[in-house]
Amino acid sequence: MKVTVENKKNLEKNLKVLIDKNTINKELEQRYEQIKKDVVLKGFRPGKVPTNIIKKQFGKAVYGEVIDRILKESSAKAIDEKKIRPALQPKIDLKSFGEGKDLEYTISITEFPEVKVDSLDKIKFDEYEIKIEDSETINRIKEIAKNQKNFVEVDPAKVANEGDLISFDYKATVDGNSFDGNEGKNTQLEIGKDLFIKGFDKQLLKSKKGEEISVEVILPENFPTKELVGKKGIFKCKINSVKKPKEVEVNDEFAKTLGAKDLNDLKKIMSKQINEEFRNSLNIISKNQILKGLEQIKIGDLPQTLIDEETKVLGQGQPEEELKKNKLSLEKNAVKRIKLGLILNEIGEKNKIKVDPNEIQAEIQKQLSMMPGQEKIIMDYYKKNPSASASLRGTLYEEKIINFIKSKAKSNKRVLDKKEAEKIIKAENEKNLEEQKKTSKASASKIDKNKSKQIEKKAQIKKKVKKVSKK
């Protein structure tokens, strides 16, 4: 195989590949020998069909199959041999081929620009440590306890108020007639939540145990019996019990209901959970600081075709009008994403950073542990979607590269309490929102300028046409 490189403009190259006819003939003969073993033709014993007969019967198909394989293997080898990294799918153009001829073809390639990352010690980022006070942990536990209401039955003379839990039996009719599912036993509802039928629970206010109350409601659109939707339903209700909410006591027993050994163990779990919540958000801020540092690394111009492809990906699902309006911001983000991707990949390759299959499995197991009862659905999702595993691998790969950069870059360690952490996260979110607004305005402004230029040109053309017509 002979490969020659022809440089075109910018990052575009042509590889001219020549494979001599003797190499192709050897490949063809080997394939014919393989076919001989399996082909069955009338008048010949298995494995004894002459090659010339096989050629006559299957020649064209065999030649096409062999040439297709040679093209795939030789093009990949040629690109690898010349150490070229294609930015897009290379295009193959056949120049000369046919039985008894050399195979000549050209590979048109748009390659990535050269990326050099000499040092990472100039990159700066904040490294955060959160200290959660005991009072914060206790407040979180109290919030959970408050939401887990414990209802206790009260004196039968007590009436039901908002926030109380009522248990009742009912029998419903529409226009005096019963219907499927018109009866209920020991139905429970919390007054004020309005979760049964709109306006239902308000009519049970001030009711008592043993009391019978008639409730009138309009049956909603989601009512199971469709022909009754919009009609007036009359529910004859008998109150079985009225329960008042009792504040849950925060103690060892309460902790056990949440899966902890005791209250001290629950405090540790809650402290870890709060810490994790803040750490995730603050880690994103640290990562963004690192990515901004990486953006300062200069690389060559990116291929426009690659920018266009990435812009399409970013604009997926947006209406045509929105795409036009946001074209500038989409292109800007596309360039940023491609550039960062190239730099991160260069750091990963240069430092031999890899993601082990076991690491992918460990991450999937972590997801399974976070979603109890959904294990089979998650496993089936990854089995049926290889792209999901590839995406997970990409996320882990980037995470490992970022951690590697952290080990080499300059870190500014900051110890924060909860309020300080909240303040930093809020400021970062507001800054990101402001940047998005600025980008959108800049994009719209450029479009407006382009429109005004087009209007100006049209006006000038009209003036010229009028002058010519007068002459």
Structure described in brief:
With 471 residues, the protein is an alpha+beta fold. It has twelve helices and eleven strands. It folds into three domains: 109 residues, Trigger factor ribosome-binding domain (Alpha-Beta Plaits, 2-Layer Sandwich), CATH 3.30.70; 98 residues, Chitinase A, domain 3; 190 residues, Orthogonal Bundle (Trigger factor, domain 2).
Report what the structure shows.
The chain has 471 residues and is an alpha+beta fold. It has 3 domains: 109 residues, Trigger factor ribosome-binding domain (Alpha-Beta Plaits, 2-Layer Sandwich); 98 residues, Chitinase A, domain 3 (Roll), CATH 3.10.50; 190 residues, Trigger factor, domain 2 (Orthogonal Bundle). The protein has 12 helices and 11 strands. Helix 3 packs across helix 5, helix 5 packs parallel to helix 12 and helix 10 crosses helix 11. The protein starts with a strand and ends with a helix.
Gross CATH architecture of the largest domain: Orthogonal Bundle
Count every helix, treating DSSP H or I runs of 4 or more residues as helices.
Answer: 12
Rounded radius of gyration (Å)? 36 Å
Element pattern in H and E: EEHHEEEHEEEEEHHHHHHHHEH
The stretches of 5 or more residues where confidence is low (pLDDT under 50) are: 461-471
**CATH H level of the largest domain: which superfamily?**
Trigger factor, C-terminal domain
- The helix content is 40-55%
The N- to C-terminal Cα distance equals 69 Å
Q: How many structural domains does the protein architecture include?
A: 3
Major sheet, described briefly? 5 strands, antiparallel
Shape: extended
Structural class by helix and strand composition: alpha+beta
CATH fold-level label of the largest domain: Trigger factor, domain 2
* Total beta strands: 11
What is the C-level CATH assignment of the largest domain?
Answer: Mainly Alpha
